[in-house]
Amino acid sequence: MSRSRNRLDPFAQGNLFEDPAMSAEVHKVGGSAEEDLMTVAVRPDVVSEAISRVKANGGSPGVDGMTVRDLDAFWRSHGEKVCRVLVCGDYIPRPVRRVTIPKPGGGERDLGVPTVVDRVVQQMLLIVLEPRYEALFSDSSYGFRPNRSAHDAVKKAREYVASGLDWVVDLDLERFFDRVNHDVLMSRLALRISDKRVLKLIRRFLNSGVMLNGVVMDTEEGTPQGGPLSPLLANALLDDFDKELERRGLHFVRYADDCNIYVGSQRAAARVLETATNFLEVKLRLKVNRLKSASAQVSERKFLGFTICRYAKGAFITISDKSLKRFKDEIRKRSSRVRRIPSRNFIDDLNRYMTGWAGYYARVATGKEQLEKLDWWVRRRVRQWLWVQWKTPYRRYTHLIRAGIPEEQARKTMWTRSAWRAAGHRCVERCINNSQITKAGLTSLLDHKRRLASL
Predict the structure, then answer these.
(1) Average of per-residue pLDDT values in the chain
(2) Which SS3 state, helix, strand or coil, does residue 273 take?
(3) Range name among 15-29, 95-109, 146-160 with the lowest pLDDT average
(4) Which residues sit opposite 440 in a β-bridge?
(5) Are 21 and 85 spatial neighbours (Cβ–Cβ below 8 Å)?
(6) In this model, does residue 2 exceed pLDDT 90?
């Protein structure tokens, strides 16, 4: 449902700080932190840190068009008024700007881009609230938390599998960030936040709406991905689920809305899947995707892009088949035969993607076989791309002869129509050998793993 809004403009209310005593009150921490969270949030050191984080994160403008570059000038003129309106409890966020990005597994994910000022305000709240919740969150929760990463989650999962828990309950929450029930979330927050201004502001952020094609749409559920506060709110809601699993004595790893529970038998896995689904849907009013959720042996499921396999002496981590396929699809796109770019730019483009990919996958994957195979495959794609760039049989023949290939072999090979098949010929591998490809600057996934292991 769409609606028009006559929003309170916190910057059009006159000189709110004409009284010096009222101005000083904004930056004073009075009473207990329990009662005065908002006053702590507007302290100069908190505001400065929030602005630094927003500037460091960058990002596109919100519905008002303000960029991060405009933030310093805006805050010098209006920052004091923003803080005063926050302390008074009258701050009203703007709608978020809806954008969509492709999901790795297909489909699209909706993101909500808040205005730059709203991002600063959310960061101020995050700085105040995060330490309070961090002390309470489960040790088995890893998503969007300080000093924790997806790699830590995968390593913990491997520990459970190595201990003999080789059956997994893999839970998939359907459009989690879009389906968070506001009333359930606010009731959880109210248990630990007594400052009504903070609760009121969080509710306003949840209800601020989404602007799509110039029309503001109501948001009756969900916490849009894209705001600094959204991950903390998601973890605060799912902490109830974590505590329930701990109460039952279950071993689990959760990264945001991605949760795996490890048990020792098929029967236990089926039972846990049923009871966990019931808790999420009844208690937290979330929707479990029953088509994607399952109980299975760990080697049949993936977690955060990896697959964990058990063997007699423990467990090892491999890159999942879907992750390998996405890697090859991306390399195919970047090495398409129709791309007409200089060789140097071609290699640089491959390196940018491979370096980022290796930084995530090569760091924790056990062994080197998968990376060796991928390196071999990428080098063949480079040979294929060069074969296409040479275009004519005569030019291909010339390159082969210069590389010392016997004339008879060169004549046979130069007529090979399939570039992929030609890239696999021994004479082409001699002509464009691994040393030449490395000298041209192509990175190696296996070398990345070795460098990461030495850090």
Answers:
(1) 87
(2) helix
(3) 15-29
(4) none
(5) no
(6) no
Q: Where are the beta strands (DSSP E) in 200-240?
A: 210-212, 215-217
- For 147, 165, 211, 221, 260, the CA distances from 271, given in Å and listed in that order, are 33, 15, 43, 30, 14
Token pair for 169: 């309950």
What are the pLDDT digits (tens) for 280-292? Answer: 999 999 999 999 9
Question: How high is the pLDDT of residue 325?
Answer: 96
Hey, what long-range contacts does 104-112 have (CB within 8 A, 24 or more apart)? 104/322, 104/326, 105/322, 109/225, 110/178, 110/224, 110/225, 111/224, 111/225, 111/226, 112/210, 112/224, 112/225, 112/226, 112/227
Q: Is 352 helix (H, G, I), strand (E, B) or coil?
A: helix
Give 225's pLDDT tier (boundaries 50, 70, 90). confident
- Give the residue ranges of DSSP H helices in 335-444: 343-364, 369-390, 393-402, 407-414, 419-423, 426-431, 434-439
Does 214 or 289 have the greater pLDDT score? Answer: 289
Tens digit of each residue's pLDDT (9 = 90 or more) over 233-253: 999 999 999 999 999 999 999
Cβ proximity of 140 and 160 under 8 Å = no
Q: Is 167 strand, coil or helix?
A: strand
Residue 23 parent element (H or E)? helix 20-26
Instruction: State both tokens at 278.
Output: 């019931």
User: How is residue 35 annotated by DSSP?
Assistant: T
- Taking the C-alpha atoms of residue 225 and residue 174, their distance in angstroms, rounded to an integer, is 14
Residue 96 DSSP SS3: strand
β-strand pairing of 306-311 with 294-297: unpaired
| Pairing outcome for strands 215-217 and 210-212 | antiparallel
The Cα 6–Cα 94 span in angstroms is 11
Q: CA-to-CA distance for 439 and 441, rounded, in angstroms? A: 5
Instruction: From residue 446, give the alpha-carbon distance in Å to each of 16, 254, 272.
Output: 61, 29, 39
- The count of other CB atoms within 10 Å of the CB of residue 213 is 7
d(CA 272, CA 5): 46
Question: 127-136, 222-231, 339-348, 365-374: which has the minimum mean pLDDT?
Answer: 222-231
CB–CB of 55/90 below 8 Å? Answer: no
What count of other Cβ atoms lies within 10 Å of the Cβ of residue 3?
9
